[in-house]
Amino acid sequence: MASDALLEEFEVLESIYPTELSKLSERDIQIEVEPEEVEEEDDRLLFVLSVHYPDEYPDVLPDLSLQLAEGELEEQDIEALLNDLRTVGEENVGMAMTFSLVSHLRERMTVVVREKVELKRKGEVEKERLALEARIRGTPVTHESFLAWKKKFDQEMASRKAKEEEEKLKGMTPKEREEYKKFQTRPSGRQLFERDKTLATMDDSLAEEGTVSVDFSQYERRRDQDEEEEESLVEFSDSD
């Protein structure tokens, strides 16, 4: 007979996973678990997490098993996910832990999918590189063929950068995204220079606030007057 605490946990789980959860007995359930996001259908993963609750639960870890229902994953990777779940379970002994286990599994599956996508992308890039080297060795590269290759390469890099920016923005708060976009649109020093090239010849000291411009011609005229007065005194003294 399931404890009241376990029955209460089942009610919560059924409300959270109405279609994913299957109750097999009073102490056995299965939950279908998918990653949080999948870019392409080919990268989709689906696990069935089976949980058996001993009489001592939640003061002991439940029996866990993972079955890969859809997708491809190495056996050692599945075992690593299962070990992660057991670690999380040990940290939550003494309290209802099924929701924490499923949430952690989803997060880890998302990481695994991203790693698979990145690995596949690197494999495709390497394949293209080897194909290009083969063409270079077998066929002379013309200016037109190089430009066509460069156009395709630039498009791929731009697409990759756009995805990286999108991932970066997802992890930001709305305020952080606003500040980040403002920073990205600020003109660089080169752009400022191209807008107004007189900035390159401006004396920085004169551009500082509060600096007074000095007319040195006034001092030149004053010095000439002083010299003339000295000469007239000398002549007067000689006449004596």
Would you write up a description of this structure?
This is RWD-domain-containing protein. The protein has 240 residues and is α+β, with helices and mostly antiparallel strands. It has helices at residues 4-16, 75-91, 98-138, 143-170, 174-185, 189-195, 204-207, 217-239, and strands at 21-25, 28-33, 46-52, 63-70. Strands 1-2-3-4 form a 4-stranded antiparallel beta sheet, covered by helices on one side. A hairpin with a 2-residue loop joins β1 and β2. α2 packs antiparallel against α3 (98-138). The chain is flat.
Using brief descriptors, characterize the structure shown:
Ubiquitin Conjugating Enzyme; disordered C terminus; 240 residues; alpha+beta
CATH topology of the domain at 4-113: Ubiquitin Conjugating Enzyme
Overall geometry comes to flat
- What about the largest sheet? 4 strands, antiparallel
How are the strands of the biggest sheet laid out side by side? 1-2-3-4
Second-tier CATH architecture of the domain at 4-113: Roll
Distance from N terminus to C terminus (CA atoms, Å) equals 137 Å
Strand content: 5-15%
Q: Radius of gyration, Cα only, in angstroms?
A: 38 Å
The tally of helices reads 8
The proportion of residues forming helix, as a percent range, comes to: 55-70%
Which structural class is indicated by helix and strand composition?
Answer: alpha+beta
Q: Write the element-wise H/E pattern from the N-terminal end onward.
A: HEEEEHHHHHHH
- Class of the domain at 4-113 in CATH? Alpha Beta
Number of strands: 4
Regions with little confidence, pLDDT below 50 for 5+ residues? 210-214, 234-240
The CATH superfamily of the domain at 4-113 is Ubiquitin Conjugating Enzyme
Whole-number mean pLDDT: 79
Biased composition (Acidic residues): 226-240
Domain RWD: 8-112
Region (Disordered): 160-240
Biased composition (Basic and acidic residues): 160-182
